[in-house]
Amino acid sequence: MEPVHIIGAGLAGSEAAWQIARTGVPVVLHEMRPAKGTFAHKTGDCAEMVCSNSFRSDDDVMNAVGQLHWEMRAAEGLIMSMADRHRLPAGGALAVDREAFSAAVTEALQAEPLIQIVPGEITDLPDDGNWIVATGPLTSDALAQAIRAVTGTDALAFFDAIAPIVHADTIDMSVAWEQSRYDKGETEAEQKAYINCPMTHDQYEAFIDALLAAEKTEFHEGETAGYFDGCLPIEVMAERGRETLRHGPMKPVGLTNAHNPTEKPYAVVQLRRDNALGTLYNIVGFQTKMKYGAQTQVFRMIPGLENASFARLGGIHRNSFLNSPTLLDDRMRLRQRPNLRFAGQVTGVEGYVESAAMGLLAGRMAAAQAQGRDLPPPAPTTAMGALVNHITGGAEAKTFQPMNVNFGLFPPLDEMRGGRKGRKDRYPAYTQRAKDDFSAWLAAQ
User: Fold this and answer.
1) Which stretches make up the MnmG N-terminal domain (predicted)?
2) Which partner from 125, 157, 204, 430 sits 20 to 30 angstroms from 344, CA to CA?
3) Element (H, E) at 256
């Protein structure tokens, strides 16, 4: 049997390889790292996480991304299995020890006899064979040029930003305290998964002034793109209004200052554990394009971080993705070259879990093709089906932008009322329908 070739061993490519091998089809997984790196990646490991260490909400009843977690677990996905094995306390979210996670994914893929990992950069798109392109938002220049040559159009682009990471022992815990928002979580560790730094009104105003005045990274001449609203740099949010951050990542709701319970903070900066040892914390929602010197000055204005030491400062990078509604069919194949499937963030999904989920689907579809079968996508009533439906035709091509999974992508429930008050009943109905339909899709294979 001819193998399926996958370009890129990120979350999507790793999941695709695992799913294909589980069907008995051989896989060749091509990865250019570490011989050719990117500015964002630090290792040559598979499924390296370069931004947040969070897979977001793990609530599979009231949250669409939690439902996506459920579907990936039901499909016995590698990414969710290793995330569960290396999870960290994070309230109601699923956060992982990023280094242990990617090392475990790499080890599992290397141990699978049907998967061959081949180092080296792929610079051209093959004319034949069964291929999956899962190169992510940091696709190499040579391969990006090859994609443009085949599609006849430029890939769209936006800028994504990386949040800074702080050494835990440099946080002043006489000022900060441990608490998840609304004490969410079943264990004490989950209920204290975040470190919170409070700000008064005057401290917040001074912080905003410094943030707006700080020296920023400039784009190269002629380089333009829009930001993805789910991952805006904090200074861009501040430019949209002085109160924007206080109603976003710095909102004080659901938190009580353990050092001064009677005084409500005007704003709160949260830090989330980044490794199992608890020695590193990332500043939640603090993606930034400030220059490094400005970052240390501005972030040390945060109460509790006056003497903070940074394991990594924030950064910004250009992400590329296809105009998938015009280029891909519902089997995730390139219309002009159906021997090529695309998966992951390059298809226009946003987020670790969404990227891995598209790898899972592309892998199963490619394996079915190798076995002489055709596998349709899951119903659009499922989280995976809603995503693939959005990127392959449900979205408006002229305004297509990266999208996280959300209930707005699900077909409506006619009998359920809309509005905020209807969510308590509507969301569980969405997720139960999704579970039933996804289970049926799995059973039919």
Assistant:
1) 4-373
2) 430
3) none
Could you tell me the CA-to-CA distances from 223 to 22, 39, 135, 219 in Å, in that order?
42, 18, 21, 6
Q: Identify the helix (H) or strand (E) that includes residue 81.
A: helix 78-85
Which DSSP state fits 378? P
Q: How far apart are CA 369 and CA 15, in angstroms?
A: 17
End-to-end CA distance of the chain: 19
Residues sharing a CB contact under 8 Å with residue 71, sequence separation 6 or more, in sequence order: 357, 378, 382, 383, 384, 434, 435, 438
Does the pLDDT at position 423 exceed 50? yes
d(CA 172, CA 383) in angstroms, rounded, equals: 41
**pLDDT at res. 1:** 86
The CA distances from residue 247 to 252, 266, 276, 389, in Å, are 8, 11, 30, 32
Q: Which token pair is 112?
A: 């699978």
Distance CA 387, CA 12 (A): 14
As a whole number, the mean pLDDT across the chain is 90
List the binding residues for FAD.
8-13
Q: What is the rounded CA–CA span in Å between residue 281 and residue 352?
A: 19
**Three-class secondary structure of residue 202 per DSSP:** helix
Residues 426-445 have pLDDT tens digits of: 999 999 999 999 999 999 99
So what's the pLDDT on residue 222?
A: 47
Q: Residue 113, Cβ neighbours under 10 Å: how many?
A: 7
Tell me, what's the pLDDT at 37?
Answer: 57
Classify 62 as helix, strand or coil. Answer: coil
In CATH, what number does 4-155+322-443 get?
3.50.50.60
pLDDT at residue 413 in the model = 87
Number of neighbours of residue 436 by Cβ within 10 angstroms = 13
Indicate the fold that domain 162-317 takes in CATH: Elongation Factor Tu (Ef-tu); domain 3 (2.40.30)
CA distance 136 to 359: 11
The ranges of the chain annotated as CATH 3.50.50.60 are 4-155+322-443
The DSSP secondary structure of 102-150, one letter per residue, reads HHHHHHHHHH-TTEEEEES---S--SSS-EEE--GGG--HHHHHHHHHH
Residues flagged as binding site: 8-13
